[in-house]
């Protein structure tokens, strides 16, 4: 089978794309990068050189050029969420396959419009990178539940500290401080987390009597990207840093989710996720809640009530040769090549609707 020819939007010399997307795309015979589109042609050329891409790779600065290039089969977009619409809309209108990071759009309305463009353009494969939903750890936890390891699932609690969203933020991430940009702790951190929670325990969510979303730090300190120099001691922040959610999954399992900004308690995990059953309990811990990225210290433990034994459970990583951020993304690409979509635009719009509902339940119009 011929390799899928990729036009990549947002492959800068720093950031997420080189860590998460590039390793698999450069090592797999199933994909070939044929074009780069950054903010300037010079930036695109610099990335082509920096990552040792062939000299035949085209350098673009306009998403329209990517959309009009007949040699591109798949457009991959890894830019800030508030730039998703402008960068992928031309390719959707041109009928090209698209893979874009989560969130799909900066808000529900934008996500719905992108879905409309996808349908009108007759796009066959439109993928949103909610990569944790088919991650090896998700499969392992589901395997434990399906095999009856803890009996009937009774409830689940999930508690996380986001790391970001604390008292300070580096300049490269200051957009997270603005709610209307659409990329923040609620949409990104909570959005990814609630998705892998439901990938394990079942989709569908009936929100409980009261959700709390709050911005408890309306001003924060802006630091340079080395986190050494204060650029602004009172940067205004409109995005939220605290979320408390309770409800019931479609599987009738009661659940509580608590996520806050800032570092975890010293010496304690940044993620503590428990699934209680009639015959035992599963505990998942990690230094942070970003299981879609991966955590080197992540553990899955099972407490068997009958024997009172505690056992750590391992799992196999299909792409163990790659660094952690690239592994789950590699799985998305592998599935796509096989004709299976990790998360469709339709799925992503449902995620956006759920987040909109969570905001609304907390009295916030976002």
TrEMBL record:
Source organism, top-level taxon: Eukaryota
Residues of the Gfo/Idh/MocA-like oxidoreductase N-terminal domain: 5-124
Listed SUPFAM superfamilies: Glyceraldehyde-3-phosphate dehydrogenase-like, C-terminal domain, NAD(P)-binding Rossmann-fold domains
Pfam families: Gal80p_C-like, GFO_IDH_MocA
GO molecular-function term, one example from the UniProt record: nucleotide binding
Domain Gal80p-like C-terminal intervals: 136-285
Protein name (record): Galactose/lactose metabolism regulatory protein
Naturally occurring in which organism (per UniProt): Lachnellula subtilissima
Organismal lineage: Eukaryota, Fungi, Dikarya, Ascomycota, Pezizomycotina
Gene from which the chain derives: GAL80_1
């Amino acid at each position: 089978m011929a390799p899928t020819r990729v036009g990549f939007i947002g492959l800068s010399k720093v950031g997420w794309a080189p860590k998460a997307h590039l390793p698999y795309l450069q090592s797999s015979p199933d994909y070939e990068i044929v074009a780069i589109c950054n903010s300037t042609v010079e930036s695109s050329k610099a990335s082509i050189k920096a990552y040792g891409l062939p000299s035949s790779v085209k350098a673009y600065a306009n998403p329209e050029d990517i959309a009009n290039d007949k040699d591109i089969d798949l457009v991959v977009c890894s830019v800030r969420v508030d730039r998703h619409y402008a960068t992928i809309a031309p390719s959707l209108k041109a009928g090209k396959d698209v893979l874009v990071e989560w969130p799909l759009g900066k808000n529900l309305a934008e996500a719905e419009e992108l879905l409309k463009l996808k349908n009108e353009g007759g796009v066959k494969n439109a993928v949103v990178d909610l990569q944790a939903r088919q991650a090896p750890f998700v499969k392992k936890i589901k395997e434990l539940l399906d095999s009856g390891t803890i009996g009937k699932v009774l409830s689940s609690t999930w508690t996380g500290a986001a790391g970001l969203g604390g008292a300070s933020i580096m300049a490269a991430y200051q957009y997270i401080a603005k709610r209307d940009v659409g990329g923040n702790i609620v949409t990104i951190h909570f959005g990814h987390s609630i998705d892998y929670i439901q990938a394990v325990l079942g989709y569908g969510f009936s929100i409980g009597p009261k959700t709390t979303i709050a911005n408890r730090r309306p001003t924060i300190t802006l630091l340079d990207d080395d986190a050494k120099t204060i650029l602004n001691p009172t940067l205004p922040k409109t995005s939220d840093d605290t979320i408390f959610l309770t409800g019931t999954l479609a599987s009738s399992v009661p659940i509580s989710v608590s996520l806050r900004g800032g570092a975890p308690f010293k010496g304690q995990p940044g993620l503590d996720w428990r699934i209680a059953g009639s015959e035992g309990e599963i505990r998942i811990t990690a230094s942070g809640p970003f299981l879609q990225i991966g955590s080197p210290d992540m553990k899955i433990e099972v407490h068997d009530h009958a024997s009172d034994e505690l056992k750590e459970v391992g799992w196999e990583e299909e792409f163990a040769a790659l660094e952690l951020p690239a592994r789950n993304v590699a799985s998305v690409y592998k599935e796509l090549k096989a004709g299976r979509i990790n998360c469709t635009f339709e799925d992503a719009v449902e995620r956006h609707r759920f987040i909109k509902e969570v905001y609304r339940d907390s009295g916030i119009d976002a």
